[in-house]
Amino acid sequence: MVKNKFGDFVNQKVLPPIMKFVNTKPITALKDGMVYALPFIIIGSIFLILSNIPITSVANALKASGWSAVFSQAYTASFGLISVWASIGIAYVYVRNEGYEPLPAGLTSLSAFLILQFLQVDNPLIATMGKSGSGIANAAGSTVMSGSQVAQHIDKLPHALQTFLSAPVTNTINITWLGGQGMIAAIIIGILVGWSYTKMLKAGWKITLPEQVPANVANQFTAMIPAGVILTVSMLLYAFFKMVMSTDLLQLIYKLLQTPLQGLSDSLGGALIIAFLVPFFWFFGVHGGLIMGAITSGLLIPNTFDNASLYHAGKLSLANGAHIVTNEFYNNFINLTGSGITIGLVIFTLYAARSAQMKSLGKIELVPALFNINEPFLFGLPLVMNPFLAIPFFLTPVIVALTTYLVIYFGIVPPLNGVAAPWTTPPIISGFLIGGWKMAIWQAIVLVMSTAIYFPFAKKYDNYLLAQEQAKVAKETK
């Protein structure tokens, strides 16, 4: 009775507002718009691996031959532009879902994203100068002039020339903001552009051409007024932040929103909450992975990008600012072998189950589980609203999140390297890709943990099913 009341409370009071939020136009645009970035993230991850092959002799050979720089170029122009893909994709999906031509909105969002940032980069000399400077290296990567030596030579020049050489390089795009650091800004801009663009079209703010004009031409004139208004407002905002606050909107969003939110998502508490909520929603029949993925992707993907940048620079460590909780932490640990990390349940059904129901479902679930899919268990066993298996279903991801966080925090395994292995990549293989052989071994340990946690609860449920089956057979034979 208590359980039914609690289930009714969750289904009637808790889930409806959450589902209402998840299904709002902005969140739908965010969730579906980010999908357009996935090919570039995954392909870019391949280039990231090639530019940082963890075999010293091969890495040195690639660097000396120049191929390492080539792979780096490909990584920068794919994975490295993640905020660009986000800003375009989110506005595109928002307007598409409203029934209008979406591509002009996506391109308008990109233009606004660029307008709202300083089109400049720090002079490379700044990073090379001083005792902590990187100095100047040759093509082989050897330092030919230390940071102190660079500073000494610069100090001998006239002051006007020093100022000129150290001034920011203008009329160029700073790729820092096109990557992970610009993600929250890209999300906000994409949503606002999609919303305002559709509002103006619905209000009739468009140029209507005669029917004889080809549709592809007419669509561009339809987009002209909304795009013009959005870009003009973006320009005025840029002017305000530059002239009044001596900054740009992207830097402000990064400092005030993205940095604290990334810190929250990268905390142990954040990891445990995410790990608990995924099976919690599934237990009541709602797609927990979809809900939490939509909510957390805007924070965890930038964490992944930051780690990828450190890995690419050969500086991947917590001391250098690497994150513990990334999108791969979510995909390849919290959801390993499916929501609830149910591989232990699969192993039980294959080797220890006595009931026909568990045996048959175990055979069906084995292959999908290897690719992190467990819907046959969620709805067939079922795990949804099943009190026998609720404890391990909730507990396993939480314990895995806790222990994985701690083994990275204490340096037992390295931080995740930012490589975005597709969520369907089988366990151990995905561990090797996202963190090397130590992470692959840790994933194998996680599979054992899942088996140990599920086994006693699965045995109790199996006995319950077996008793039901035997009672049914006895009844039919009478």
Overview of the molecule:
The chain has 478 residues and is mainly α. The chain folds into three domains: 2-122 and 168-262, no CATH class; 123-167, no CATH class; 266-477, no CATH class. The chain is built from 21 helices and four strands. It has helices spanning 2-22, 25-33, 38-51, 56-65, 67-76, 82-97, 103-115, 124-128, 147-155, 159-166, 183-202, 215-245, 249-265, 268-283, 288-312, 327-334, 343-351, 356-370, 375-380, 390-409, 429-477; strands spanning 120-121, 136-137, 143-145, 169-170. The strands form two sheets. Strands 1-4 form a two-stranded antiparallel sheet. The longest helix is centred in the C-terminal third of the chain and has 49 residues, at 429-477. The two termini are 34 Å apart. The mean pLDDT is 88. Keywords: Cell membrane, Membrane, Sugar transport, Transmembrane, Transmembrane helix, Transport. Its main location: membrane. It is found in: Cell membrane.
What are the key terms here?
mainly alpha; single chain; transmembrane; 4 strands; 478 residues; transmembrane helix; 69% helix; sugar transport
E-strand count: 4
Give the SSE order as H and E letters: HHHHHHHEHEEHHEHHHHHHHHHHH
Q: Terminal Cα separation, in Å?
A: 34 Å
- Percent range for β-strand residues: under 5%
Global shape: globular
Tally of individual domains: 3
Low-confidence stretches: none
By secondary-structure content and strand pairing, the structural class works out as mainly alpha
Main-sheet strand order equals: 1-4
Main sheet record: 2 strands, antiparallel
Mean pLDDT: 88
Residues in helices, as a percent range: 55-70%
Radius of gyration: 27 Å
What's the tally of helices?
21
